[in-house]
Write a structure and sequence with these properties.
With 215 residues, this protein is mainly α. The chain has one domain. 75% of the residues lie in helices and 0% in strands. Helix 4 (76-88) packs antiparallel against helix 5.
Length: 215
């Protein structure tokens, strides 16, 4: 009898671990990624700078105004408008998921920016940005993190548009480098951060029973 209870207990523990593997894996990846950033950012910066200087000079005047406008699709204000639109359309589950995800993303990204405290590229390099950023801390890219978080969460409900959603997120990330307010590494790390936070939020909120799917 005792043996069966112990066996059931261990089985329950393993089951909980399996259920939580997405969260554990996402948290572990975030820790590893930012551990590498803290430890090796100075070593990575010369390569990051060289890549930025390869991309930034090749600007096309015809699309500059569009990209300056398009990059703002990655702001919390724009994504909050998406939340409102979804809610008014009666699609409350994706609205709730996205709203809560944006809150967690904003807190995490803001704290990481403060801890890493990397200056914007135009502060230390001879480049002319197409716009100035309000927050002078560069890593991770908040716009990119927001865009990929939103793509990850919305793909939970609109899976047939997944490719489009991530293509939009990637274009927002590229725009941040193109207009000169982020290094490529800022964008890459921001994209990974957004995806991982999105995965964690979807997994957690699914357990609260908000599981209606809109396809």
């Amino acid at each position: 009898m005792v043996k069966n209870l112990n066996s059931n207990s261990r089985s329950g523990e393993y089951s909980n671990i399996y259920k939580n593997y997405k969260i554990y894996a996402s948290v572990l990846l975030l820790i590893v990624i930012y551990g590498v950033i803290f430890a090796f950012l100075n070593l990575l910066t010369p390569y990051d700078t060289a890549l930025l200087l390869e991309i930034n000079p090749y600007r096309i005047a015809a699309i500059e105004s569009f990209l300056v406008l398009w990059t703002n699709a990655g702001t919390y204000l724009f994504m909050s408008l998406i939340v409102i639109v979804l809610w008014l359309k009666g699609e409350k589950n994706p609205a709730i998921y996205l709203a809560l995800g944006l809150i967690v993303d904003a807190i995490l990204v803001s704290d990481l920016k403060i801890m890493i405290h990397r200056p914007r590229p135009y502060e230390v390099l001879p480049i002319l940005p197409l716009e100035l950023a309000e927050n002078l801390r560069s890593l991770p890219s908040g716009h990119t993190a927001t865009a990929f978080l939103s793509a990850t969460i919305l793909s939970r409900f609109y899976s047939k548009y997944m490719v489009v959603l991530f293509a939009i997120a990637a274009s927002i990330g590229f725009s941040r480098v193109y207009i000169g307010v982020h290094y490529p590494l800022d964008v890459i790390v921001g994209a990974i951060t957004g995806c991982l936070v999105g995965i964690m939020m979807v997994d957690l909120l699914d357990r609260f029973g908000i599981t209606q799917r809109y396809i």
